[in-house]
Each structure stands twice: as C-alpha cells, then as structure tokens.
C-alpha cells in the first residue's frame, strides 16, 4: 500500500487507522469533541468516548472506532492537544500506534 504525505500537515495517510481513548486519563476538558465532534463526545460521566461510524456513542472504556479519512487531521490534532495524553491512533492492520502517547 502506498503511503502518502499530506502537504504541510506532516500527517501520513494511505493506511486505515482507528482511534481509542484511555478514559482513566481523560480530564474531561472536551478539546477532542471540539476538534472532531463526529468522532469524540463527552458522556454524562464527563469523560470522552469515541463514536461509531453511524454516530453511536461507544460507552465501553477503551472502545475503538475507525478514523474517517476526511477527519484524520482533526483526530490527529486532538491526539496532539489532548491534555490527558490519552487519545491513541493506531493502524488497523498491525495495531501499531501512529499518533498518541505510545507512538514512536
Ligand atoms: S482531549 Fe483528551 S483529556 Fe480532553 S476530553 Fe478529550 S480525551 Fe479527554
């Protein structure tokens, strides 16, 4: 599969990615939900969770959802800005984290 680099963004595309949140570290500030409300939402417990492709809030801690390519920049920005360092973006093919606290 060809890996492409989006001009100026430093974001590598071309591989299917997924994202999950470690709720144990979430501060509940809601930055992720501001950047990418299609992917992240605060639940009534005050913590952020990911949403499914059909907009359903996935309330299981550590639930995983695919990253829609048009939203990749916003999801990566969320991971970079997340004060809890708890947004993890990884490749679906081998589960290697590409953005987030465990990315190399
Ligand atoms: S940006 Fe991080 S710490 Fe803030 S609500 Fe989202 S997941 Fe939680």
In brief:
The chain has helices at about 30-35, 70-80, and strands at about 5, 10-15, 15-20, 40, 50, 65, 85-90, 95-100.
Number of domains: 1
Percent of residues in helices? 10-25%
Class of secondary structure makeup:
alpha+beta
Small molecules (ligands, ions, cofactors) in the structure: iron/sulfur cluster
Mean pLDDT: 91
In the CATH hierarchy, the architecture is: 2-Layer Sandwich
What features would you describe in this structure?
- With 104 residues, this protein is of the alpha+beta class.
- It has one domain: Alpha-Beta Plaits.
- 14% of the residues lie in helices and 25% in strands.
- It has two helices and eight strands, in the order βββαβββαββ.
- It has a four-stranded antiparallel beta sheet, covered by helices on one side. Strands 1-2 form a two-stranded antiparallel ribbon. Strands 4-5 form a two-stranded antiparallel ribbon.
- It starts with a strand and ends in a 5-residue tail after the last strand.
- 26% of the residues are buried.
- The mean pLDDT is 91.
- The site of iron/sulfur cluster (SF4) has 16 residues, from helix 1.
